[in-house]
Amino acid sequence: MRWDIFCRVIDNYGDIGVCWRLARQLVAEHGIAVRLWVDNVTSLQRICPDVDAFQEVQNCRGVEVRRWTEPLPELAPADVVIEAFGCELPENYVAAMVPTVSHSTGQAQSRLSLARGKVKRVWINLEYLSAEQWVEGCHGLPSPHPYLPMIKHFFFPGFTPMTGGLLREKGLLMQRDVLQHNLAELWCQLDLPLPISSETTISLFCYDSAPISNLLDAWAASTTAIRCLLPEGKALGQAANWAGRTGLAVGDSVQRGNLLLQIIPFLPQEHYDLLLWACDCNFVRGEDSFVRAQWAARPLIWQIYPQQENVHQIKLDAFLYRYCQGLAEEAVAALCTFHHNWNSGGCLDWNDFWQHHAELQSHAAAWAGQLAQLTDLASNLVSFCKNKVSSKNLNF
Ligand code: TRH
């Protein structure tokens, strides 16, 4: 089977982060030949430094990475076409996808089919992740093309068996467990010093709309020592202002009160996982880091990607509602209050939140265990597409 994944980088790294992870997993675990079309190869290079941002076509980790330019070169579409996050496929590619249904039979039809590639093709719109209830009802639904004889299917990631699930590589959790039991090795792989036992380590990945100064102030006033690891990126400007510096760069550190703030490089995607596994608490954002923080089985604070008319607040609450099941009332209140304030620029009471850290930690581990019972997204997607291909109806 051959698959084409199309990814348009809107902003940030989430779209390509998800597509890159999916592409690698399809190759490594399902033996699928994947072409990943991305309009901004530089963004991919940021999360995978082995990628050459100037190449039109290259092979990286078994994935054929191709710059998406329009019009796309004339080529035979793959058996499965993934349109990531409604990115809209190139017109000439869609035209080439149209099935070659002929009324002739036998040899004539099969020759025609061969000439234009396989007739049966699956077209998937891979959607953004949401914990909202309606996702279950929409996952897998068909959407007929307005004028071409083709059907696109919506595939929704999610947190329940009625959805497409979450990306999770084979062996990921075992690898996490091994390294979380050997923290010296984990910090060594990150090329960072092993924290002292009384220190709370926190990774911070957020948009610059977050109340970063409030957070750093709250940490400086923490009752216990905190080491914050801040990867190079959008938050650096605000952190520099807070520190009273003209700028902050990789390698810089600032000590204020009980907080030691350290600026670290933006890590390759696999190394970022290690950082999440290593830290006691992770501040994450968007979609992909948010999911990876859940696999890290450590307490997390999520900054959701802001949407118009505060639609994101509904998505945030839908997640909190699911995540908080089984957590004691006081910890729920502290977790929700902290999330709401972090996402709306409110006042942050770190000590109130972190007093529940032991409970939050065991809850994070239980949550990850519960999610691990679900089939992973790549496997669900492969089964879904195989089903569609074997369906009797040519147009599915
Ligand atoms: O970058 P994001 O804010 O992406 C967002 C969201 O996906 C959002 O839903 C989407 O609409 C918008 O993009 C366009 O956050 P996200 O999803 O966590 O993606 C970040 C990626 O960067 C993720 O794959 C992890 C990776 N990363 C590294 O590889 N190294 C690092 O050091 C860090 C901090 C992140």
From TrEMBL:
Catalytic activity entry: dTDP-beta-L-rhamnose + L-arginyl-[protein] = N(omega)-(alpha-L-rhamnosyl)-L-arginyl-[protein] + dTDP + H(+)
Coiled-coil regions listed in the entry: none
Keywords of the record: Glycosyltransferase, Transferase
Domain of life: Bacteria
Keyword Glycosyltransferase: yes
Gene Ontology terms for molecular function: protein-arginine rhamnosyltransferase activity
Pfam families cross-referenced by the UniProt entry: EarP
Keyword Glycosyltransferase in annotation: yes
Family, similarity comment: Belongs to the glycosyltransferase 104 family.
Function: Protein-arginine rhamnosyltransferase that catalyzes the transfer of a single rhamnose to elongation factor P (EF-P) on 'Lys-32', a modification required for EF-P-dependent rescue of polyproline stalled ribosomes.
Protein name as annotated: Protein-arginine rhamnosyltransferase
Origin organism lineage: Bacteria, Pseudomonadati, Pseudomonadota, Betaproteobacteria, Nitrosomonadales
